Amino acid sequence: xxxxxxxxxxxxxxxxxxxxxxxxxxxxxxxxxxxxxxxxxxxxxxxxxxxxxxxxxxxxxxxxxxxxxxxxxxxxxxxxxxxxxxxxxxxxxxxxxxxxxxxxxxxxxxxxxxxxxxxxxxxxxxxxxxxxxxxxxxxxxxxxxxxxxxxxxxxxxxxxxxxxxxxxxxxxxxxxxxxxxxxxxxxxxxxxxxxxxxxxxxxxxxxxxxxxxxxxxxxxxxxxxxxxxxxxxxxxxxxxxxxxxxxxxxxxxxxxxxxxxxxxxxxxxxxxxxxxxxxxxxxxxxxxxxxxxxxxxxxxxxxxxxxxxxxxxxxxxxxxxxxx
Amino acid sequence: xxxxxxxxxxxxxxxxxxxxxxxxxxxxxxxxxxxxxxxxxxxxxxxxxxxxxxxxxxxxxxxxxxxxxxxxxxxxxxxxxxxxxxxxxxxxxxxxxxxxxxxxxxxxxxxxxxxxxxxxxxxxxxxxxxxxxxxxxxxxxxxxxxxxxxxxxxxxxxxxxxxxxxxxxxxxxxxxxxxxxxxxxxxxxxxxxxxxxxxxxxxxxxxxxxxxxxxxxxxxxxxxxxxxxxxxxxxxxxxxxxxxxxxxxxxxxxxxxxxxxxxxxxxxxxxxxxxxxxxxxxxxxxxxx
Amino acid sequence: xxxxxxxxxxxxxxxxxxxxxxxxxxxxxxxxxxxxxxxxxxxxxxxxxxxxxxxxxxxxxxxxxxxxxxxxxxxxxxxxxxxxxxxxxxxxxxxxxxxxxxxxxxxxxxxxxxxxxxxxxxxxxxxxxxxxxxxxxxxxxxxxxxxxxxxxxxxxxxxxxxxxxxxxxxxxxxxxxxxxxxxxxxxxxxxxxxxxxxxxxxxxxxxxxxxxxxxxxxxxxxxxxxxxxxxxxxxxxxxxxxx
Lengths: 324, 289, 243
Known about the structure:
The complex is a heterotrimer of chains A (324), B (289) and C (243). Chain A has helices spanning 8-29, 33-58, 66-84, 88-110, 117-139, 160-182, 185-195, 197-201, 207-233, 243-256, 261-282, 289-304, 308-323. Chain A is mostly helical and 324 residues long.
């Protein structure tokens, strides 16, 4: 991996690399609908992991409830279209706002200064299950479908190639948001909160407020992505509130390296693709192999290389610098 | 309308259930109190132990409770193994990583169970406690009573252990103030290992008791984990009494809830209790000063 | 008679059965360097923690610039103009020194570039060499840590700085440098200092006034020479009754 340096040059270069990668992949996969859908899903997952990085990597909170926010946002956006005719291009903002609201309700009590990190993790894990049960009661076990209309107004196309492009745009926007945070006051504050919360309070940082900011940005993004997830999945049900998927997002974020945008993207693309391969090849004989893989890699990373993929890249960078 | 007899029956069953839940949560509370670690894999360890109970019970054709004799020492050793293998290497690292490792462990256990046993629930087909007797309007189920008794006895023994033995006192003083405990010569590492082993052994005991009336499937851990967290959150670091009181509250709430709500809604009630505790009484949630 | 910059009235704080602070009333005058000494367990760090809001006092009040601050959250107290340094240094390990100090400046200057400028200025004021600025927190020496700690706190532009045992672990030459630095902070930046210290050489040479605490109470106040000869103070430190 190349050392991108710092500042605006870094941003431009990173975005260029990402854009090129994203543009190249369809050329390879063109024509095969299965792979195109897979690619779109993988890119969407990467966006979720990059968004997760805001709460997990920058703010240092172990959020295990990603799909609570994805689900709420996606379902609200879809229902607004189905029931009220509001086109998703507008509806996603309502979906994002709904997810944001839920997140803040969880965040306000748990981010009080001094409360151990663990309780946020537990509460978010529990949140997914609550919503799973609640929506099962409210929506029943049926699958719901989006109206057959397509077009940019509905952010819905039959061609998976176009959906891939939409997912790529979302990825780039999420990356931009991360970069903006990193270089701003909120980024510095979040980093110091993660380093040492007490010391951060002692230089005037309202730790609870800033963690909430991170949470709000993250949950809003996820709420928006929820709708695209539904389009790719072609239907939605209470099953959208899935604990394993929520854990997977956090795991990919950790394995990628807390605070690293590139690490998160690489980790998400590799692990999600691998997981998909396991599921399709061994799904019937050895169910859960993909999650088993995630769990094992997570434990190994946690014990031996907690800085994740980004840490490995850093080491390589340093070694290369020494050789010069 | 709900008859008073039904209410009474459910309350009594709730008390028995609550005592059992206290036992289940005890291992978690012990580990959390001494080592400051919330083991996310707590429920999943119970699930794995329950599979062991099922296998042993069926192979040897014994009542599930007898398997405890074998499994408690076995899981004590397993617990120590997990500690040295997974927990100890991350003790100095940032809390998010520590929690994440236990999350990974839980995921591994769940999916190994899923791969080996598939998703159908397994139950032990026989138990010597399949009788009950009447006490006026109440029916006392022998299995529930037995479990409650074992839970009380174990927690009493644990109480004695924590107050009267050197190791127990070492655990309590480490809970109170880790630095001072270390300064007083307590070998924290060995203590942690023993604590973790003990916590896991308690889980094994709970799973033997559970299998006298329950079933095991790979996702059994989720609800037990949640119940344990709620109990620890409510009980704070109030020692065994705190855990018992909280366990009773959860047990009775769930039991009475079953009169009005479906099983999944009941779980939601426990979650909501958790959430309310968090908003209004986060005593146990603040770390040590 | 000028008003006190900081005042505590009958401050009380206990932990379980122990009274860490048992009715402490002190005044810190603007512009002074006040020494705070006493044997271990006297309550000095607890007092700091109460002032900065880390602990909520169980009794009594604290006033800063005549406004009551008892019970306010820490970050608000810092914003009002109180800063502190740490007995055991608390570096931002993975951040660069410049970023760490700049994070402090961000309290007063929301623009990151401006905050970094201010940080550089503080760093050079304290004599931190330029090549340190790019090093990460985990890569510097103890003395540098202490200076960075000071810099980070100074970056929040406090009127009052609580300095907690900054001398511990320093070599004699470093100690002399630290004495000069603290005096510079007080005279050139007009920051009032309260210095908790065990190293007598440091605290006695820079303090105009010294307060002695023992077992949660103030047992003596006055000029350094007066206080060192006070029999109660001697007894507190040595544990024997003077003849």
